[in-house]
Amino acid sequence: MYPELGLYIDGAWMKEGGRKLEPVLNPATEKTLAELPHATIADLDQALAAAIKGFAVWRAMPAYDRSRIMGKAADLMRERKEKIARIMTQEQGKIIAESRLEVDAAADVIEWMGEEGRRAYGRIIPGRVRGVRQLVLQEPVGVCAAFTPWNFPALTPARKIAGALGAGCALILKPSEETPGSCIEMVRCFEDVGLPKGVLNLVFGVPAQISEHLIRKEAVRKISFTGSVPVGKHLAKLAAEGMKRATMELGGHAPVVVFDDVDPEKTAEINAAGKYRNAGQVCISPTRFYVQDKIYKRYLDRFTEYAKGIKLGDGLEADSKMGPLANARRLDAMEALVQDCRNVGAKIAAGGKRRGNQGYFFEPTVVTDVPDDSKLMTLEPFGPVAPIVPFKTFDEVVQRANALPFGLAAYAFTGSANTATAIGDALEAGMVGVNAFAVSTAETPFGGVKESGYGHEGSIEGLEVYMTKKFIAQA
Q1: Which residue from 322, 303, 297 is spatially nearest to 312, judged by alpha carbons?
Q2: At the top level of CATH, which class does the domain 7-250+452-474 belong to?
Q3: How does DSSP classify residue 388?
Q4: Residue numbers annotated as active site
Q5: Maximal C-alpha separation, the chain
């Protein structure tokens, strides 16, 4: 079921041909799925030349026709959902049910943004002198370069593709080398519905080499990056040297504030399910749980019970509820976080260790008595480790929740409309979910504040970042 891997440049697939190869591993078995070719510098320059030509063709095509092509690609993704989902689970590890939902979400954002491209309206500003027309037009920014991580191998690339193509831009996309198959199959859908050559190009290789080579090219006018804060800052500096537009979707450490006017057991179940989705490897994952004193013990008991009941296993197995971590690095990171918790006197209420000796499985973990200045409470865990701590007052928890330099997502659970409004206003994050974790859909803006980045994906904001505004005064 795993596909043959290659680069996609100027409408053609390029495979080995003497290129450096990198093995792609199945995180559940640690076995090699396939060999992935790396792009050479000549490949990157060819991709750029193709994107320049593709942009000229694509921007000249009516938005209505661009939308139809994107809609057909989205429909084809839905038809091939099972195939793409199984590929995703093999290379990334998440359970098959989550992979299927991700393919659906990726198709939705492509379809939605294609349609929104038909509504990239300008406006007319009344002139001061009779006979003068003042027009504001929206135009595609040009050739774009995008870089995506391994945790959502279809949805994150789809957001970049959707925004760029919906606006009329051409794109050079570099997904993660650890999870290439999902994106390759998605690009095949665009190829099979007749996307013009050069509009979408797919490359793989050493991330720093590719990003630095492309970002420094004058023809690249915008970059979009999803990943860590340190890498995002580096790429933002490179973009600034050329005055290039940039969208940065960086790390987070989302607080969850649980007030004592909710059902503690029911809320704990909802929170635990959200926490252990994709083994916690989600940039908007709930990661710091603050629970009001009155219900703390009941909430903790049910959350812990839920965590202990999660069945780990290969994501392709129907009864698995959580798959492995995506790579060995995450396994090492979880072990280090748990050890630091022990070192600072925290208690492990559930899990806390690797499961088995094959595959990157780590037990769903619950930690209590964690100091606010510990590594687990200050560094994004990006894994299945949940710290749960009590709080007393509204003002206290707001201060603790907002204390970190991150501001991607934040959540709160309360039965009071007044408290819901107050906490929604008080939390410093680009996305706030009150009584829900649903903060990411095609039609809503996705983005953070503070060191979690800037710019948006999804919604009209996700289209506008790929467009420039031109003012024309016509006498």
Answers
A1: 322
A2: alpha beta
A3: E
A4: 249, 283
A5: 79
